[in-house]
Amino acid sequence: MSRRTILALSGAATAALALTAASLPWTIAAPRAVAFAERDLARRYGLGLSAAGPATLTLLPAPSLSFSRVRLRRGDHDLVESAGLQVQLGLAGLLAGRAEVTGLVLDRARIALPDDAAVDWAEPAARLAARVAAGRGRHLRRLVLVDATLSGRDPRTGSRETVTGLNLVASWPRPSAGLDLSAAFTWRGVPATLTVSGLRPPALAAGAETPLTAALTWVAGPGIDGPSAEGSAEIEGSLVWAGTTAANSPAANVPANEASAGPATDGPRLSGQGRFTTPALARTLAWLGVEPGPAALAGPVGVEGRFTARPVGVEWPEIRVRFGDNRLEGAGALALARGRLSVSGTLAAERLDLSGLLPDVEPGGGWSRAPLGLDALTRGDLDLRLSAASARLGSLEAQDVAAGLLVRDGTVEATLGRATVQGGTVKGRAALAALPSGLDARLQGSADRVDLGGLFADLGWPRWILGRGQGSAVLDTAGSSLADLVGRLGGRAVATVEGGEILGLNLADLAQRPDSAAVALRRGGRTHFERARVSLTVADGVAEIGQGQVRGGGLTASLGGRVFLAERRLGAEARIEPGPDGRPAGHFAIEGPWLRPVLRPLAARTLPALSLPAAASAYAP
Fold first, then answer.
1. Are strands 101-113 and 142-153 parallel, antiparallel or unpaired?
2. Which positions fall inside the AsmA domain (predicted)?
3. What is the CB-side half-sphere exposure of residue 27 using CA atoms within 13 A?
C-alpha cells in the first residue's frame, strides 16, 4: 500500500472520528453552560435561566446545549418549568465564543399564566417584538414544545383552565419567510389541532399588515359522561397590530436603537374570510362552557363570510348562516363590553324552519312540566332581525315573515312584525322576564282574514269551521313550567268569523231533534252562517265565554260556559233560539276534550241576553 493511500485513509478515519465525536453529546459543567446560554436569553428577551441537572453539548447536526430540570424566569417569577430544555445555537456565534440562541425545545414544560401574566410576560414579548421589527440580530428560528402543560385563569369566570398534551412546532427559518405553526393539544377532554401559516413577523411587529391563514379543528372527546364536541374554524385574511408601539411602553425597556420600529400593543385587527362548522353545536357550546340554548340549534351549524375582528368585537358585513336545513344571509356584529357579549344581526332566508323552538309536549298530550328559565338565553345581549319568504313552526306554514328577537337586561322579547298565514295577516309579541321561581310572560297578537279551514288542517285539528277569521288577544302569566304558565294564564281575547259554515253539525236539524245530539257531530251536516262572534275572559287558566253567538240563515245560536286550558277540556252550553217560522229552541251541553267534544241535550232554560262586541269569533265543537 502506497504512502499516499495510507495518508488518505488516515485522514478519512480522522474525519470520521471527528464527525462521530461531534455528533455525540459531551457532558460539561452545568453552571458555566447555564451562564453561557443565559447571557443571550437575558440580553434579547430579559429571561433568566437555571438548571438543576447536568448539561450536555452536541455540535452536530447543529450546535446545541441540553439541560434538565430547567426554570425560565423574569426577576423572581418563574414563567416556565421544564423537565428538559435544548438550546439551539448559531455556529458563527459559537465559533466567536458567544451564544446566539436560534431555537428552543422544551420537554414536558409546565407554563403557568398567573393573574399578573401580562406583567410577567410584558418585557420578554416587548423585547422580542422590538428586535423583530428593527430587523437586527439573529432571531429565534424554531420553538418546540413536547407534551407541555399550559394553565391560566379564564377571564370570563375566573376559574383555572388547563391545556394538556401540548405539542407545538413554530418555524421561522429566515426573516423574509413566513412563520408556520402547528400544535396539537387537549382541552377539557377534547383533542384539538391548530395550524397557522403565512404570518410575517417583521410586518406584524412594525404595525404593518401581514397575511394569515389559520385552521382550528376539534374532535369528539373520550367518554360518554364528559363533554364531547367536534368541528372546525378556518380563517384566511390579513392581520395588523395597530396602536401605541410596544417599544414606547414602560415595560419594554429595550435599547433605543431597537425601539424605533416596535409593534403595536393596543390590539390586533384581523380581517378576511372565515368559516365555522360543527355537526353538533350543543356539544361544542357545552365544551366551551356555554349553555346549549334552543333545540333549534342542536343540529349541524355553520357560519361563513367576510369579517373584521378587533379586541372589542367582530363585524360581518357579509355572513351566511346554516343551522339544520336553514340557510340565511345578511350581516352581523359581535361585541364584548365589561365582560358581557352582545350580538346583533339582520338575516334573510328563502325558507326557515323554527320547529325546534316549540316547547315539549308530554307523551299523553298534556303540557310539559319541565322547568323553564332564561339563563341559557340571557347570558348576553341579542338584537336579531329575521325575514323569510316562507317559514315553518311545527306544522304551521307562513309566508312573507318579518320577525325580531331582542335579549337585554335579563329579558327576552320576540316580535312577529308580520306574517301571511292561510291568506291572512298575523302579528304578535311575546315578552319574557326571569323570576326567582320561573318566568313572567306577556303575550299579545292579532289576526286578520285568516282561512280557518286551512289553518286547522295545518295544525292537524278537525276542520269543523270554515271562513275567514279575525281577532286579537292580550294575555299574561307566570310560572316555572309550561304547565304552570297555562294554568295561571289570564287576559282577554275576542274574535269574529264572517261568511262561514260549521262542518259536521246542522243546528237547525239539531233543534228539531235534540235526541240526536249524541251522534250529531258524526252525521256530516253543515250550518251556514253570516257572522260568528266570541269573547273570552281568561283567569287562572280558565277561559270564560262571556259572549258568543252565531247568526245566519234565519238561525241564531248563543254560546256560554268555560274552556279549561290546563286540562284541554270544554264545559260549555249552547242554545238555539226559536225561529220565526215556529222552529223549536234547543239547549245543549258541549263537554269533553276541546278538539273532540260531545253534545248532550239539556232541559230548556233561558240564557242571559248577549251584548256582542264588534270583533269576536264563533265557537263550535
1. parallel
2. 367-544
3. 3
* C-alpha cell recorded at residue 446: 292579532
Q: What is the dihedral of CA 219, 225, 227, 229, to 10 degrees?
A: 30
- Rounded to whole angstroms, how far apart are CA atoms 532 and 500? 8
Domain edges within the chain: 1-96, 114-290, 465-601
CA distance readout (Å), 391 to 360, 396, 403: 20, 8, 11
For residue 245, what are the CA distances in angstroms to 239, 242, 310? 16, 8, 17
pTM for the full predicted model? 0.72
Cβ–Cβ under 8 Å, residues 377 and 345: no
pLDDT tens-digit map of 342-388: 889 999 999 998 876 666 555 556 788 888 878 767 777 889 999 99
Identify the residue whose cell numbers are 450546535. 63
202 has a pLDDT exceeding 60: yes
Backbone angles phi, psi at 410, to 5 degrees: 75, 15
Distance between CA atoms of 438 and 486, rounded to whole angstroms? 13
CA distance 146 to 11: 40
Count CB-CB contacts under 10 A for residue 59. 18
C-alpha grid cell, residue 436: 326567582
C-alpha cell recorded at residue 472: 286579537
Kindly report, residue by residue over 124-170, the tens digit of the pLDDT.
Answer: 777 777 777 666 556 788 899 999 999 887 766 677 889 999 999 99
Residue 608 per-residue DSSP state: P
CB neighbourhood size of 347 (10 A): 20
Backbone angles phi, psi at 27, to 5 degrees: -75, 130
**251 Cβ neighbours under 8 A, 6+ residues apart:** 119, 122, 123, 126
Reported as a single tens digit per residue, the pLDDT across 310-354 is 888 899 999 999 987 889 999 999 887 766 778 899 999 999 988
Give the DSSP letter string of 189-249.
Answer: TEEEEEEEEEE-HHHHHTT--EEEEEEEEE-PPSSSSS----EEEEEEEEEEE-SSBGGGS
Q: Residue 54, SS3?
A: coil
Return the sign of the alpha-carbon dihedral for residues 203, 204, 209, 215.
Answer: positive
Q: Which residues contact 215 (CB under 8 A, 6 or more apart)?
A: 194, 195, 232, 233, 234, 235
Sign of dihedral through CA atoms 492, 455, 462, 599?
positive
